[in-house]
Amino acid sequence: MKPIDQYATLSDFTTELDQQKPVPMKIMGKKRKDAFFSISMLAEVHNQTNDPDAAGPYQTIDAPFGEILVRGARLHAGLTYSTITPHPLGANHFQGDIVDLDLSGDGKYGPRHRLSMLLTHTCDIQKLSHISAAPAFLESELSDATMIHLRDGVAPKNPKQMREMWLSNEMPIYLGLPATDLTGVPGGERILVCLHLAAPVPRKVVLSKTTQLRLKYRASSYLQGRLAVLLMRDVQNSDETREI
User: Fold this and answer.
1) Fewer CB atoms inside 10 A, N or C side of the chain?
2) pLDDT tens over the chain, length 244 residues
3) Residues 211, 221: Cα–Cα separation, whole Å
């Protein structure tokens, strides 16, 4: 490997990095020259995304999962929801799956909702006794009363604006998904997943539910990125010295 400043392009660097394999970064594909590696896949996403700084102010940027807005992001339905029907004999639950599951306990633990999203990693869903699931509210379920509850009793000054902000992925605790015709509403309904309200659910309860919506690969990667942002936020007022 050469010093990084001697590579002309990002593609040159990642190509040689994949060939040299100084660290094991292979994440999919067989052991052949065209196998996919995490570094090259990240570089490809980078190449497919326009440079926001070069596009001018207040311009929407196309991305592999949808659009990057001035604040937040908008996922496109065609890039988000899979059209593949789960095999009846297969392992039919994966991270990001949306199932008919109300975590509110008939309203005891929060506003009632029809759907929930599975957050536990795919590899662990069939193994663990409990699965992490987050409540997912349809647009029609995001009433003013529900929003007040989600804001710990504080009423938003502009509920419509606040609702759009949440659904546009401007806050790390929420994941806004594009409209789906799951409920039969003309034009479909968007979905708001409350990542910060995830709760453990017995595996047998989860496995008894049929997957209603499944994420495509790029949308699943976006979900994992949002989880990373949520769970790895810095503690600014720590009393630790942070000395290494």
Assistant:
1) C
2) 777 788 888 778 877 776 776 555 555 555 555 555 556 666 766 777 777 666 566 678 888 888 888 888 999 999 999 987 767 777 789 999 999 999 998 878 889 999 999 999 998 998 999 999 999 999 999 999 999 999 999 999 999 999 999 999 999 999 999 999 988 888 899 999 999 999 999 999 999 998 999 999 889 989 998 998 888 766 666 666 656 5
3) 19
| pTM beyond 0.90 | no
Single-letter residue type at 181: D
CA 221 to chain centre: 7
The answer to whether 26 touches 35, Cβ cutoff 8 Å, is yes
DSSP bridge partners of 91: none
Spatial CA neighbour of 136 closest among 77, 205, 189, 181: 189
